[in-house]
Amino acid sequence: MYLRRQDRLALLAIGLLLLVPLLLGASYLWTRHAAAQKNLEQLEPRYARLLGIEASQAQLEQADASARNAVAKFVYPASQDGAQAGNDAQQKIRDLFTGAKLDIASSQVLAGKTEGDFERVPISVRAEGEPSALQAALVSIGSQSPAILIDRMTIQGSSYLRADATRLTMQFSFSVLRARS
Predict the structure, then answer these.
(1) Residue 34, CA atoms < 13 Å, CB-side half-sphere
(2) Contact between 114 and 89 (Cβ < 8 Å)
(3) Could you list the pLDDT tens digit for every one of the 181 residues in the chain?
(4) What are phi and psi of 21, to 5 degrees?
(5) For a designed S-S bond to 176, which of 6, 18, 89, 120 qualifies (C-beta 3.0 to 4.6 A apart)?
(6) What is the reported pLDDT for 172?
(7) Within 10 Å of residue 124's Cβ, how many Cβ atoms?
(8) 146 phi and psi angles, rounded to 5 deg
(9) Which helix (DSSP H) or strand (DSSP E) does residue 29 occupy?
(10) DSSP designation for 76
């Protein structure tokens, strides 16, 4: 069967017309495939990090528990009111100072201030005593839990009792932290 030249050209034109959508479809698929590959390449490091985090979940939970325990040693819990935390710390300070033979002239819990996830409760204390008593009080303050922070202290010497004895007058600004949530 022999086709005429016009029939062959018509068949070729029809074949080309059928080939154009096929080429366009292949081009579209290739473009989509390249975009998907690019997305996979961007996601692969993130996915690997996620797998690493998932694999170290037990270690992360242990570190979280350790951090919570450390915070609990230094900070009053959120369940305790700020005034209660301040009063508790004030009583501890008074006990430590009197135990170290310092005379307390005054002490006062001031209004708390919010600092991020914590409330800082200031405590003002005025005391008098010997240098050795001050040293003993400062050492004992450092071992308290929750922590009592010394924000500021002013120490003045006076020898009004005897010329050979030195008595100190001290003004302290302490603070304690209380968790807010």
Answers:
(1) 6
(2) no
(3) 677 888 888 888 888 888 898 999 999 999 999 999 999 899 898 989 998 888 889 999 999 999 888 888 899 888 888 888 889 999 999 999 999 998 898 899 888 888 888 889 999 999 998 888 889 999 999 888 888 999 999 888 765 555 556 788 889 999 999 988 7
(4) -65, -35
(5) 89
(6) 92
(7) 17
(8) -60, 155
(9) helix 5-55
(10) B
Q: How far apart are CA 121 and CA 146, in angstroms?
A: 12
Measured distance CA(16)–CA(21) in Å, rounded: 9
Backbone angles phi, psi at 62, to 5 degrees: -65, -45
Handedness of CA 122, 128, 132, 133 (dihedral sign): negative
Q: Return the residue matching tokens 């070729």.
A: 12
CB 173 within 8 A of CB 77: no
**Dist. CA 44–CA 115, nearest whole Å:** 39
Amino acid at position 17, single letter: L
- 146 preceded by cis ω (within 30°)? yes
